[in-house]
Amino acid sequence: MIIVLRKNISRKEELEVLRAIKRLGYKPHIMRGVARTVVGAIGDERKNQSLEALSAMPQVESVTPVQKRHKLVSREAHPVNSSVRAGNVVIGGRKLIVMAGPCSVESEKQVLATATAVKAAGASILRGGAYKPRTSPYEFQGLGEKGLKILAKARKETGLPIITELLSERQATLVADYADILQIGTRNAQNFQLLIAAAKTGRPVLLKRGLSMRIEEWLLAGEYILAHDNPNLLFCERGVRTFDTYTRNTLDLAAIPILKQETHCPVVIDPSQGAGRADLVSGLCKGAVAMGADALLIEVHPNPSAAWSDAAQQLSIDGFARLMTDLQPFIAAAGRE
Amino acid sequence: MIIVLRKNISRKEELEVLRAIKRLGYKPHIMRGVARTVVGAIGDERKNQSLEALSAMPQVESVTPVQKRHKLVSREAHPVNSSVRAGNVVIGGRKLIVMAGPCSVESEKQVLATATAVKAAGASILRGGAYKPRTSPYEFQGLGEKGLKILAKARKETGLPIITELLSERQATLVADYADILQIGTRNAQNFQLLIAAAKTGRPVLLKRGLSMRIEEWLLAGEYILAHDNPNLLFCERGVRTFDTYTRNTLDLAAIPILKQETHCPVVIDPSQGAGRADLVSGLCKGAVAMGADALLIEVHPNPSAAWSDAAQQLSIDGFARLMTDLQPFIAAAGRE
Amino acid sequence: MIIVLRKNISRKEELEVLRAIKRLGYKPHIMRGVARTVVGAIGDERKNQSLEALSAMPQVESVTPVQKRHKLVSREAHPVNSSVRAGNVVIGGRKLIVMAGPCSVESEKQVLATATAVKAAGASILRGGAYKPRTSPYEFQGLGEKGLKILAKARKETGLPIITELLSERQATLVADYADILQIGTRNAQNFQLLIAAAKTGRPVLLKRGLSMRIEEWLLAGEYILAHDNPNLLFCERGVRTFDTYTRNTLDLAAIPILKQETHCPVVIDPSQGAGRADLVSGLCKGAVAMGADALLIEVHPNPSAAWSDAAQQLSIDGFARLMTDLQPFIAAAGRE
Amino acid sequence: MIIVLRKNISRKEELEVLRAIKRLGYKPHIMRGVARTVVGAIGDERKNQSLEALSAMPQVESVTPVQKRHKLVSREAHPVNSSVRAGNVVIGGRKLIVMAGPCSVESEKQVLATATAVKAAGASILRGGAYKPRTSPYEFQGLGEKGLKILAKARKETGLPIITELLSERQATLVADYADILQIGTRNAQNFQLLIAAAKTGRPVLLKRGLSMRIEEWLLAGEYILAHDNPNLLFCERGVRTFDTYTRNTLDLAAIPILKQETHCPVVIDPSQGAGRADLVSGLCKGAVAMGADALLIEVHPNPSAAWSDAAQQLSIDGFARLMTDLQPFIAAAGRE
User: Fold this and answer.
1) Is B280's CB within 8 Å of C257's CB?
2) Cα–Cα distance measured from residue B40 to residue B159, given in angstroms and rounded to the nearest whole number
3) What is the ipTM of this complex?
4) For a Cys-Cys bond, which of A28, B1, D50, D301 suits D314, CB 3.0-4.6 Å?
5) Which of B214, B260, B261 is facing C244, going by the closest CB pair?
6) Contacts of B286 in chain C (CB under 8 A)
């Protein structure tokens, strides 16, 4: 930790800071500059308590950590890319994986039609929400377990593994019984109890980025999964909230090269949530593939304008097939299959 | 709902939209303008399904709701201010209520010392976290039930009702057994399962604003409490996330007059989280009181620079006493006690 | 400056950094920690070139300045509050100053009516835009010099000094000939050539905060005024841009205590732009006064719903008079006149 | 325009609104819904005054425009892509154009070395700043006209057209005498007087997006160029400001497909400013090319760690050459040369 002291403090006030540093288990190292005195606190920031408490002392101007706080998810800890297996699909290998399906599970017919079609177009995993987190209590909240059963049936018929959202600690076992991958949604990205519950099921976890989550906070939320003994973690960028009103969210594609530097875990991009508009999905997928995403998560509906949730961002089945064709040259350029 | 059609669409495409509007239970009303055709969809937006699905049709440019979506929390539904009772304290009445105490419960000694001191200085409710949501899994996660017992002991000794955070659906009953008010933290503000679990305990719920939550989303999260038969809801502004780096969050004090227009529920301000800096707490409290806040939620610690969490934003006991004195003229100016 | 080196770099790579530090005029001071090596660079960051260039070296993880970059506007440089005089009005003294008037100058009749009324209600300075920065080239761009002449006439009749916006370097002399205070708008807050031109007129300058300006950037923009030999600077908070859509901007009232710590210059609050809604102006003014603002800048129009710009945020003349009455207890509580 | 009236207003209050609509040149059309009455105002929103003033009436809940405000830059006005010529280089054609060079012009040697190298690697246009907008008045402000002469010399030696920033209305003619393209920086993106001055030189104008500019505001700023009779406009996305601290800005690559829908003008991406980190430039370029950017604007310096400004984001000459090679497959995949 680096502690910058305020100007014009007395020797006594300085000593108080040094004592506090020692009390918290660090060795202080003084450096007198032209304008300020700086104290380096030597010690392991992960083992010792944080020195940020020192910023409460009036003689301290700022406290800056030196070490990064994420550990198990970091590339330092695990220099080689890790990969995550769901059924017989590997995410994080040479093959670009496409997960596709409706926003909400609405009926068996809707899910089976979509599953068959997205599989034919090249998708490897089926997505669909059985439990839906909705801004208003009066909106459709998902079919619940009935939806899970429909997804399982679609898996049986098509062989596609399924990914579905987990909303509640109390449903972790139930949802894990049906799902191949558990999705943690953006509004729950720092619901740490839910992260722990998901980790403990042993299923792979896809962790969406929170609405206004900094990269470091996201890595640390992922750290909760690995720290609870589940190594199967996928980070999924789905757009952050900004001032812009043209799109629902601002998809931060720079997250791909950043995550590739910071972590060994695979990176998934959700262009459907990322824009909130079907007409931008194709462009965003091209960018995501070129920039090195390991997988895409795309909303597809047999009849978007009759969808029960997020209609504006779902592709039609034809639109999805066209997209898969359009992506081919970019997948090849990125050295993927 | 107002549906704006794209330019130069055919009569047939227009009819498709009208049919879709009728299918969803609304009566379409066409208005031909100079540049665009606009369709008003007459019908109850709360009873019928949303027309937003229509934005998936290529001939539709935009869909705008006319009705507000919050209902039970709205002032339209309940024109008079509501108030919330915790023990013998009433929040939302003429008296400005101050809730004070440490960020985390660390020990019995720490809590009792703080409780006695804040009571003497004029606080009416004791705050303290037994379960702590922490960005990193390696940080102190709270004392858990032991912390709840300490808070209960402090209540017994001082008579102060207690407010403490609920983190997990599975702990709702346990925490409600000890607490007079359940706090829902900013990272769980759209953890709807937790909101429902909190509502069902029957305890008053203080709902902090999410990190980048729009006013309407916040009102709708509150709506989850009232819609699950718990009328005892407090909205608590605690700063939103912006681009600024000087403070941890940007306290949106305009939320006070806005909430006073939109809802009947009491409004609480948390200046400690709102700034993340003890030196700004006094200024922010003055503003909050002048602007009509019903209560303040303030972090106080007997020795901030040794605090186990959020040291930089906690007031010392002396600092809190000074603050309470400094606030008197503003409380009087606001017509409060 | 504090330079954190990457892990596992060679001794040779470390020496390259030390040499670069010396070349830029600093003395390196090495501190070996548990996880990282940190180098303090001793030297005056304001006189020497910034070391931020070192962050381009692959062996450098981060570079953090220790000194603040603002100098003349800082409280360190000038511990006592400064005040700014416009005509016979002093901003920054014991009296709370209210600047009021229409968003745009539309006609002599409109301005004279407003000026007379706001003076009667207690305003000390007349505001009004003769040159208007408009998002679209097809919107009303202001009356130009004709507008300035109308303002001058209103000053003659009422004795109120006038504040008006400067949009163009080329008009600096012209506008300064008429105005008592030059306003720099939010979209020009980092138009440094305009800041310099404004400073050189010698007139007091009111510098609005940019749409997404950090506090430090704002202080440094103000530094441009003082560094060009004009000590008469007012900082004006007018709301920043966030994700929220309920109000046009988010008024950052915490800027008042922050600026009072960091700078000696007076602080002005613009609640009209800050909310973009007339119905929130009164609440925001109460907060601003309680928190220590030196002046308020308020839009008032004889007939808001016929205003040529920003109608929604202008108070009527009656509304303004009511506001001035409502503010009295808060002005007294803040120890002002 | 769509005007939503408040609930429970009297017939008389409703008539006042209708009269106001007529007075402003529109024909009102009433639509009575279940919860609200909505009035459509029929008329050309671009020719008539805006009805937004009506939002100042207490009986009006909201006013929403129906027409988009940008005209000349819109795809509706000019369905085919436009292209911009600088020297013998065409931006907006089949060839992907790369503009490269140092952030600041520092010396003849530096610029000539960079120009020769970037040309050899495949760049078509030379960039370099002679006038630099700097956050602090104490930072290097550019070599001024001397810098322009150096750029002109580099053009003469290499044949590369040059792009350089215009900071001041008063220098418009001078800079236009040297430059092939005038760059308007992010901090001046709504400095409308500068936009007009740039337009009037007749030179192509590259308009960077403002720090927190909405898409519509950006299109309207571009509209200032075309409305002042200069059809040679390039939109340049360079990252927006968000809450994230990992990168300097958040590059909004979705702006590419959005601009391609909304405008006929070419789209340029600046990944150097967009990330503020050289190590992310390659990834961002791949995404930009795949998503359909017409040109890239890249900072290159012979010795980044000795650069006088923005060192961290400049590529070395080797790094740039590698980037140009790495981009080839993506350029081909995008159907470009």
Assistant:
1) yes
2) 57
3) 0.94
4) D301
5) B214
6) 290-292, 334
